[in-house]
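ok trying again, last paste got cut off:
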Amino acid sequence: MKIVSSLVLMFTFFIGLANPVHPTAYKIGDIATDFSLKSVDGKMYSMADYKSAKGFIIVFTCNHCPFAKKYEDRINDLAKKYKSKGYILLAINPNDPEVQPQDSFELMQVRAKEKGFAFPYLLDEGQKIYPQYGATKTPHVFLLDKNKVVKYIGAIDDNVDSAADVKEKYLENAIAALESGKTPSPEITKAIGCSIKVKK
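nice, full thing came through this time. structure:
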């Protein structure tokens, strides 16, 4: 029994290393702390800048990740669609550029210009924000209401490879639920993407 218990503990330990979640990671119903991060336009952005917002779509994403790249156009479309409805999309690059040079601030600026991003693309300098949220992948989405209460966590939709073949628009369905005063269902889905790059 001792051997079995030891193996279980070792397995749990290594799984934890592979999928690190900060102990203070946000859960559904938690109130998110505001941040102040630099965007590719050189300005600092925070949720407090948007006094009349009905909610916030926080997307942890980056330049290099193939999954993130497949979602870039969808993220851009979401930003445009929901800004007029009062929901502000803020994209945050959580990766350490020394670990993944393709995610440097300078290359973020290049990518934003190439793709015509219609949202602030922010750098989590010092990697202080993503652990608070508990983001583990790029992309990883957190939907907050106007009071910054976490209402949905997870994936944008159910098809990484093809926007045309999406059957479940998790994020949009969650926003629709908020709009009608209902609880999103599901409230949590599994984020599919690249692991966040952290210094060893």
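cool. The helical segments are 2-18, 66-83, 105-115, 130-133, 170-179. The longest helix spans residues 66-83.
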